[in-house]
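Quick one:
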Amino acid sequence: MLLPIAVLRGVADGTVDRAFRRWERPRVRPGGRQRTTVGVIGFTSVAVVERSDLTDADAHRAGHPSLERLLAFLDRCPDRPICRIGVELVGPDPRVALRDAVPGEGEVADIARRLERLDRSSRHGPWTHAYLAAIGERPNTPAADLAASFGRRRQPFKLDVRKLKELGLTESLRPGYRLSPRGEAVLLALTSRR
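Output:
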C-alpha cells in the first residue's frame, strides 16, 4: 500500500494511525508489514466502513487536513467499498542496518551464491555484477538512464535493483541509487575473483 511521505512521517511520529482506501477486497491483512522510507509499518486492523460514518477525526488520524479532503480522495473510486486500515510504526527497516554491515569472507561467499542464483533465474541473462558495477560507477544516475544503458525498460530494471537492495547492497537516492558499504565490499570481492 503506497502512503505519501507526509503520511509516513505522521505514522512515524504517532499522529497518523489509520489509512483509508477503496478496494474490491483488502490488499493488506492485520499483522502484515511493509517497509517504507520511515521504517517498517505494521497493519493493526482492516475493516470495511461506510462513507457516512467517516468523521473529521478519521481524516486527521489518516493525515488528511479535513473530512472533505478525505472524501474527495476516496470518491475517486466510488464503486468500491471503503477499507479503514490501522497503521503503526513497528521499527526501523532492517535493510538500513544491513547496508552498513560489511560482510566477512563467509558471508561474501553466501551473497555471491545468492547473486549467482539471481543470474541463473534471470530471463535476460546474468546481470547482478554489471548492475552493481554500474551503480558504483554512476551513483545518483536516474534509473531510466541506467536501464537504457543495459537496453532495458525502467520498471523491470528497478525490480532487479530492488533484489540487490533486499540483500543490503544498494540504497535508493533521489535520483538513482548508490552502493552501500556492504555493496562496495561485495563488489570489490566479486571483482577480485574475476
